[in-house]
Amino acid sequence: MVLLLLYSLAFILPCLAYGAPPTVYLDLATVTGIESGNITKFLGIPFGEAPRFHLPLPVPPYVASIDATAYGPSCPQQLLSPNPLFPPGTSPTYESEDCLSVNVLRPNGVNVSSKLPVAVWIYGGGFEVGSSEQYDALNTRMVERSIALGKPLVLVSVNYRISAYGFLAGKEIEKEGLGNIGLYDQRLGLWWIHKYISAFGGDPSKVTIWGESAGGISVALHMLAFGGDSERLFRGAFMQSGGPMSKYYDELVRDAGCSSSHNSLQCLRKVPFATLKNAVDKSPDFFSYDGIPLAWTPRIDGVFLQDHPQKLIKAKKVADVPFVTGNMDDEGTLFAFTQSNLTTEEGFRTYIRQLYFQGASETELEGVWKYYTSIPSEGSPFGTGDLNQVYPQYKRIAAFLGDLIFHSPRRFFLDEVSGKQKTWSYLSMIQKSTPMLGACHGVDLSSPFLDDHFVNFVANLDPNSGSGPLWPQYTVASPMLYKFIDAAAPVTAPDSYRINPIQYLINLALKYPM
């Protein structure tokens, strides 16, 4: 009878084990995740404490069990202005100031001995909105694709504070050395990954940081952080639509009712969250008429960012890691919809004078009027003739914004460092026929044209797989782009599009940084 019982248990126990949820061990804690198809997810693991308007603090060693089966709360979001392309925005399901958490996605069956390469996703949203949870489908797609290609990876996403909560600027902030709180959140997340990712089957020596838009800018700024010291937290970087490139403090203080306080920063720390959020939501956002340049964005703080990004790049204070960077062709169209009141030549010129290149003379701005004309066929969406002119200055403003914010930083970055480290670059024409928008900002996330190249890069620090068209390195002697086109194989081409207007903007931005 005893033998029969033992024989039965031999079959029962494996079944019980098979049905058990996935777990990992961090310090003294058991972390329980969930399986989703061929992927295991560990979600909402706290990695830091986020005291209001203070730098983040690492969490103490884990001792209690952690339920990692759902995403944690998003960091507080800024309310965006209405945009005719989008329905009224809704905030993530749950926001909290206590929002610093990481999410780890890995293939099923991975264990501590797997030592897979690691991709770290930093979300975009203009440093005003965004959360890791919003990109669950993208991150899942990447892990699934890595499995299909036989190059499995572990993917980590990191929540960080945004808008004024993460990028408050002003004399009071400067006095306390508290600039770029959101970037410090990201950096603390990278330190957490360095310490704990091996428990999930990842290799801390094979980390690639990856982001799009503000996330791509963040990646570039981590390459410039602390004078270009990667602190061995990453070995590669992948930037999509992002590259390196305060009066609002007083307005926030006023709107939060802190103007009469002898210590306005301390007052902002103590006001009820609802009061603070109402004040933050009055700030310009990237869909506002004056929302670009952004109100709340990374700034020079003398520590994390020791100087203007352009000057750091010129001085070659850049982390010496391979990287990929690129853009959509029509990056500016999405942001040009809210300037529809600009219908005249003088209106366009006033807009540029008020918001960009502060201190530039009229003579210095002549090149802007010359290269960014009101002729529709010269504007963005590029190559569409007189079509897609939403309002009289639309294609002109779209061309200017796309070149200033996205194309000129990319080209400047590559021109300065491609002789120092391995680099690759792309230009995407995917979905060029989209009415009014063309090949616009964000398509590189919704369309999978980069997926295989990204997986290859995370695995081998090279976007090529050994088959298909060769993506050449970008060098000083041969600055070549990999161009993605609808319904066709990628092609290579010199990086010479709009060379004169983009160089003009580069020169202006070097003299009058935003």
TrEMBL record:
Keywords: Hydrolase, Signal. Residues 22-449 form the Carboxylesterase type B domain. Pfam families: COesterase. Its EC number is 3.1.1.-. GO terms for molecular function: hydrolase activity. Residues 1-19 form the signal peptide. Belongs to the type-B carboxylesterase/lipase family. This is Carboxylic ester hydrolase. It comes from Hebeloma cylindrosporum.
